[in-house]
Design brief:
Length: about 270
């Protein structure tokens, strides 16, 4: 467990960039975000929903930069759920084109900032050009040493769990896995987030208090911060509030002793 006598050089480095009031020893390693409220933000301004999504991209860029500057190890965002296909086709088409445009535009900056980007979800249902760009971005940033930036696209928590069950069943049928050896670690190793610790903190904007099929396994012990702020308005002070809220919580993972990070969970 991290304690004040074992501050790492990484923590020292990032402690200097943290806003006053945040404890550098108790920042979350991994934040997950449900970016909600783009449509309402646009409607309140008499704009089309698409303008809300465009403004949402700016909020996402700023959040990623802050999480990276403040030394977080991973940021996972919900960009498009398996249920979002039921939106009007013009909005779905717009969102796919937006993801492609933004990824193309930002790829160089992501490489320079040492961000390692991955897209999580059923990517084979996305438009072909977007799939190609995702592959390129994933490969080009795979060796980066900075923050892990996971963009959940055509992602659904239940679908992910079903796929894990299918893979484990296949391995068992093929004789590659003894079913009696399937435990939480074996299961979690098949999840699309297997490279990261589980999120310590889930932020949901626009006041909704649902998980909406997001990271159902991974969020088992996450602290939840709900804010009424609409995603395009989510800024540095909103992120700071979320982190201060997180640091005010006592995390015990069902035990009695306070634990500072998922990595130390027993
Ligand atoms: C939810 O708000 C938002 C989305 C479904 C899309 C989120 C996408 C972005 C912020 C752009 C991300 C860009 C990249 C490149 C990853 P909503 O439309 O449900 O808002 P509402 O609830 O107010 O209608």
């Amino acid at each position: 467990m991290t304690n004040s006598s074992s501050i790492t050089s990484d923590q020292k480095h990032f402690a200097q960039s943290l806003p006053e009031g945040l404890d550098p020893l108790r920042t979350p390693e991994h934040i997950a975000v449900i970016m909600d409220g783009n449509g309402r933000w646009a409607k309140a301004r008499g704009l089309s929903r698409t303008k809300g999504h465009i403004a949402g991209v700016d909020a996402l860029k700023a959040t990623l930069r802050l999480c990276s500057d403040w030394g977080l190890k991973a940021l996972t965002v919900y960009a498009f759920s398996t249920e979002n296909w039921s939106r009007p086709s013009e909005e779905v088409t717009f969102l796919m084109a937006l993801f492609q445009r933004v990824l193309k535009r930002e790829l160089e900056a992501l490489i320079l900032q040492e961000v390692r980007i991955r897209f999580l979800g059923d990517l084979d249902q996305l438009p072909g050009q977007l799939q190609d760009l995702i592959t390129e971005a994933t490969v080009l940033t795979s060796g980066n040493k900075g923050i892990h930036f996971n963009v959940c696209t055509n992602y659904g928590g239940r679908r992910e769990l079903v796929k894990v069950a299918q893979r484990l069943a296949e391995k068992s049928v093929n004789g590659d896995l003894d079913p009696s050896l399937i435990d939480e670690n074996v299961f979690a190793a098949e999840l699309c987030t297997a490279n990261d610790v589980d999120p310590d903190l889930l932020i949901r904007t626009s006041g909704e208090r649902r998980l909406s099929n997001f990271l159902l396994w991974q969020l088992a012990y996450a602290e939840i911060h709900v804010t009424d702020v609409l995603w395009p308005d989510f800024d540095k002070s909103s992120l700071l509030k979320a982190l201060l809220d997180y640091q005010s919580r006592s995390r015990r993972f069902g035990g009695l002793q306070q634990i500072t990070s998922n990595r130390n969970k027993t």
